[in-house]
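Appendix B. Raw example, untouched.
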Amino acid sequence: MYGKLPFYISIVTLFLLPLIVFYLIPQLGFFPFSPSLPPPISPSDERSDLDLLRRASSSSKPYSSHLSSNSRSPKIAFLFLTNTQLHFSPLWQSFFHSSKASPSSPRFNVYVHSSPSLNLTFRPSSVFYGRVIASKATYRASPTLISATRRLIAHAILHDPANQYFALVSQHCVPLHSFDYVYNSLFKSTSFDLTDDDKVSAKIGVKLRFRSYIEVLDQSKNHWKRYTARGRYAMEPEVPYEKFRVGSQFFIITRKHAYSVVRDRKLWAKFRVPCYWEYDCYPEEHYFPTLLDMEDPKGVTKYTLTRVNWTGTVEGHPYTYSASEVSPQLIHDLRKSNYSASYLFARKFAPNCLEPLMKIAISVIFQD
């Protein structure tokens, strides 16, 4: 009997081991990452990013969110996050050229974070020329997408103190209005944000307060699974479940909140931990909404200005529009919003949409 005991122990161990590895250890937050997921961020990448973020966070002070834009010459920093060619760069070029401001004093800056394997080249006359920042590889379901966004924001802070809004867009995003409409909506309009109850601004006709346009949801599909994607207790105590938020990957934030992003170390220490399960792991959709909602909940609108069609999604990707669907009616439909006067951008468009979009750019998209 006793001689068979080691044999029984071995059988029980072999039976329990898979349960321990795939259930108990992840729940305790010890399982590093699934073999199917990309590896963790390397220490060298972390060190170089930390140096960049420190320089950005110690640069000039952010402007007050209550100052009138009339006292400054503020700009919008457009942050392009891409792992492919910028197929819609001609459309964006036309968008920036639609501005009626003097070309010698543009009201925007452009920054591009691309895959290091890409050799993005632009003509000297392009607004994208010389705007590709030092970039690193990004992977889906990985905190590398957060790192890339933080790099873009840090570069924009350091490059120009006039950058007051930071608009993150992807290679699949397209504008739905002219540049002047976008600029005036963010900096001048007192009625663009339909959720804003600042009656003083509306009364005197001057925008006194600037908020960030970022989606913030306290409940969503698989909210609990998203929270525990790194382990049952991995986010505690810095991010308790009731403080965990979900939102869109693409946003427009103020300079004040851009500083919050480059200064943060506490929440990043949690969100940089790889998930142990690919599904429900979308760090870039969790980190920014959680950080800004915890730090300044009244300073965010809790909705995005980038229209996304989530019907007919495929493996977590939104619906992709094809060339045959592009029309003036589509543009007008995509603009409609219950939270603002209009959406400013939309995604996701297939590369073959460029030609039909260019055909209606002047007559429809840039006609506000």
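End of appendix B.
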